[in-house]
Every structure is written in structure tokens, then in C-alpha cells.
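[Meeting: bench + compute handoff]

Bench side (C.D.) handed over the final construct sequence. Compute side (W.E.) agreed to return the predicted structure before the next meeting so the bench team could plan truncations. Sequence as handed over:
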Amino acid sequence: MNCYLIDTGTGYVLIDTGSSNQRAILEKNLTSAGCKPGDLRLIALTHGDFDHTGNAAYLRKKFGSSIAMHSEDCGMVEQGDMTWNRKNQTCSLDWHSVYSSGWENRTDLALIY
């Protein structure tokens, strides 16, 4: 599973969310770590591929979390369309602004929390 949970002492930060077909495993691991709805403060998505973003929209709704990701990938999560960023669309949700690190491609995430 492509994700990491960080306990900040005042809540949790989840880096990437894995693919949606691993949702039950992710929820079990979050519960085992003590992360409950309201405790997951931020979901940081490194880039928009499905194996990193597959549970983001679901977790945002269930946990009330904010999501930080590159704006050019936001529709991939919002619409569930992995080709969204190639269609010059705009997002309707209020996404956190981040900047491109340029490591893997133009939509990699670099975030200071």
C-alpha cells in the first residue's frame, strides 16, 4: 500500500491513500493507529495517480480532512478521472495550494507542514 501515517501529536497526516481496492486494509490500519474521524487533519497527495489518490475523496468525507495536492491533479481525485489533468479542466473544491518539486513529473508535491 502506497501511504504513510504521521502522528503529529495534535492529529494525523496521511501521505497518499493507496488504491480504492485496498480501502478496508487502510481503514483497519488507521483504526489500529488510533486515527478516528476528526483526527486526520491532512491528506497530502504526492501526485494524482490512482494508487496514491484512490481513497482521498472517501477519507476527506469520512474524516473531515483537508487535502493538499498539486492543483493540476485535483480533478483526478475530485472526478475520479486519471486523464483529467490532460483535459485543461478546473476544480470546484477548495484545494490547498502546493508547488511542484519537479522530481517525477510536473505534478509532484512538495509540502512543508
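W.E. noted at the follow-up: The chain has one domain: 4-110. C.D. will use this when planning the next construct.
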